[in-house]
Amino acid sequence: MLSAPVRLSFLTASLICLGALAAACSLQRWAYLPPCPLCNVQRALLAAIAVVSLIAALHAPARRGARAYALGNLGLCLLGAGSALRQLWLQAHLDPAQALDFLNAEHVFTPSTGYAAAKVYVLGTPDCGIVNWSLLGLTLPEWSLLSFCMLGALAIYPLFRR
Questions:
Q1: Which residues contact 73 (CB under 8 A, 6 or more apart)?
Q2: Closest CA to 71 of 138, 79, 121
Q3: Which is nearest to 74 in space by CA: 93, 49, 94?
Q4: With contact defined as beta carbons under 8 Å apart, do 70 and 156 qualify?
Q5: What are 93-110's pLDDT values in tens digits?
Q6: Alpha-carbon Rg of the chain, whole angstroms?
Q7: What's the predicted TM-score (pTM) here?
Q8: Which domains, from first to last, does the chain contain?
Q9: Are 17 and 57 in contact (CB under 8 A)?
């Protein structure tokens, strides 16, 4: 049986993910900020962490099961942090004029093959480097990185709890 503090940490992680997803969808809907491919990856990873955490909180496994759930969440958090770091790198190193030229081009980027789509969702596109919103001086990928770090800390807790 899972202890109450560990169960609460999984439930907290699930609520943090749902809050972050609600904020992202609200920004998309009311601030007209369409998500780029890396934003979509981060949203999918947040949703996966929410599902794994909710299942862990409801399942309430023994210590070994809780550690398995925590390792799964930690892996998803590392992938999300990597995606957010890639987007931050694009924002720091991409020329904004290059991104705007790409977006205003006559062609629309639609990957037709699986390899091209996977490459886009791993490496991003020039529009991933555009900074179009910030809160308290932090851009969306910085908030996303902060969320994945907090969720990673919550995932580490069950691993070291006796």
A1: 13, 49, 52, 53, 56, 151, 152, 154, 155
A2: 79
A3: 49
A4: yes
A5: 776 565 555 444 444 455
A6: 18
A7: 0.77
A8: 4-160 (1.20.1550.10)
A9: no
Whose structure tokens read 């862990």? 56
User: In terms of Cα–Cα distance, which of 14, 7, 13 is closest to 61?
Assistant: 7
The span from the CA of 115 to the CA of 119, in Å, is: 6
Q: How far apart are the first and last CA of the chain?
A: 13
pLDDT at 92 over 70: yes
Q: 4-7 contacts: CB < 8 A, separation 24 or more?
A: 5/157, 5/161, 6/66, 6/157, 6/158, 6/161, 7/56, 7/57, 7/60
Per-residue pLDDT at 77: 92
Among residues of the chain, what percentage have pLDDT more than 90?
13
Q: How many residues does the chain have?
A: 162
